[in-house]
Amino acid sequence: MKITLILLCSIFQYAFNTPVANTTALSINNLDFELGGEVRIHIFKKQAIELGLEMEPVEKLEVPIKKAPYLILPELDPGEYMIAVFHDSNHNGKMDYNFFGKPKEGFGFSGEFICKVKTQNPESHYIRLNAGSQEITINVCY
């Protein structure tokens, strides 16, 4: 009886002291699979955005397009993040633009992002990631 009680106490102590994993599932919609290539995902921790300066991501992922519609992101500390996605259809590792500066490849952002509408405030792309499990959806625009 004593051993059973000690065992039960140990199990409860372990159950309540085990840290919760931060699991973020990312769904990417509207990918054009016929173009092939890969999807690149850059995750940025919240920081002041200065126009003209390139931000350094805390995580960079590159996945084949067939695996891109649903991914589990690397574990991230709770906080505010911006997630940028682009479809690198020609495998050159960068976003390509036309003569007028319009992207030639698919792209999308977390937060408040609407295709065909220029974002007035890049801060609106930050989202809050909490401890535990969550799911984020990003729509890709071409």
Characterize the structure shown.
It is a single chain. This protein has 142 residues and is mainly beta. Helix content is 11%, strand content 34%. It comes from Cyclobacterium amurskyense. InterPro entries: DUF2141 (IPR018673). This is DUF2141 domain-containing protein.
Give the count of structural domains: 1
SS-derived structural category: mainly beta
Which strand-content bin applies to the residues? 25-35%
The portion of residues assigned to helices is 10-25%
Element-by-element helix/strand order = HEEEEEEEE
User: What is the first-to-last residue Cα distance?
Assistant: 67 Å
Rounded average pLDDT: 86
Q: Briefly, what CATH class? A: Mainly Beta
Pfam family, one: DUF2141
Protein name: DUF2141 domain-containing protein
Organism: Cyclobacterium amurskyense
Helices and strands, with pairings:
Elements: H1 2-17, E1 23-29, E2 38-45, E3 59-64, E4 70-72, E5 79-88, E6 107-109, E7 126-129, E8 133-139
Parallel strand pairs: 1-8
Antiparallel strand pairs: 1-4, 2-3, 2-5, 5-6, 5-7
Properties at a glance:
142 residues; mainly beta; Immunoglobulin-like; five-stranded antiparallel β-sheet; disordered N terminus; DUF2141
A few lines on this structure:
With 142 residues, the protein is mainly β. 11% of the residues lie in helices and 34% in strands.
